[in-house]
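Why does residue order matter? Because the sequence determines the fold. Keep that principle in mind as you read this record.
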Amino acid sequence: NVALPRRMSDAEAPGRQPSLCSIAFDPGRAILACARGHAQPKGAPGWVFVLPADDLQGAQARSYDCRFDPCWIELSPGSRRLAVAEHNGGVEVWRYDSQLRALADCVALPPLAVGGARLSCVRFLDERFLLASVGEVHSPGGILRWDLDDPAAQPVPALVASEISRATRCLAVSPVEEL
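Structure:
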């Protein structure tokens, strides 16, 4: 039994609750999740929640407004950034403080310039680069990469559609040890 923020506990329509879209776990014992409302029109803004995991019975989640309808979240390998993606190509990156279990300094990355492209998920390659799987409506997509040191820069192809035969729905990144 978790004390969720008012917007999560208040149904937008009788008998309806907002749905959780994605979840991430902070090694500092917090749960991060994004949600959107069932009764909201498609594309309406959603929320990101930070919930302390060490006291779920009495915990109070903190909520943060997204600029769009979220579909996926990803915590960076060093737990310093949180990326929130929407299906239609928008990505927000928040600074995450694992000690305070709080988000701050939200930056909206340039949206995808490909018409009809949809994001399936995002993954941090490291603290600097963010990958996104992209599928176009009527053809395979690819994988794009944002450089977070230059948040105004357009994403660049990391793997293009001609190199894969189907749209990519999920990404996994293998940790690399420095030599």
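Residues 8-16 have pLDDT under 50 and may be disordered.
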